[in-house]
Design goal:
This protein has five helices and six strands. The chain is of the alpha/beta class. The longest helix is centred in the middle third of the chain and has 13 residues. It has two domains: 44 residues, no CATH class; 74 residues, no CATH class. The protein has a two-stranded parallel ribbon. Strands 3-4 form a two-stranded parallel ribbon. Strands 5-6 form a two-stranded antiparallel ribbon. 34% of the residues lie in helices and 20% in strands.
Length: 123
Amino acid sequence: MPAYERAYGIVRPGGVISRVGVPQYEDAPVGFASLFGKNATLTGGPATIRAYLEAAIPRVLNGSIDPGQMFDRELPLGDIAEAYRLMDARVALKVLIRPLTPACQGLPVTATPSLDEGPVWRH
């Protein structure tokens, strides 16, 4: 809980601690010695990734955005189970998965866009 403890330590009385994404800590203190005593608010919700995904993915793929600033591990698609294990064990916070697209393998590429899943690569 280091992020929560740091946020609580610096929030001023009447302030707000806001988190983005799925809560990682279920046992955060909320009694008088914590949020209640400072009259602080804890708020948050899921990340609004869908709003940025369509514009961000091409920029990540062409190198104009460095995803290394957001991810602490990188694994191939075949190791997806290991990526989830690392995140579940809190060994990694965000894992970048590198799919083996036909373009990476030198195969002819046709992309079928899908609103829910992004491009579906066919060869």
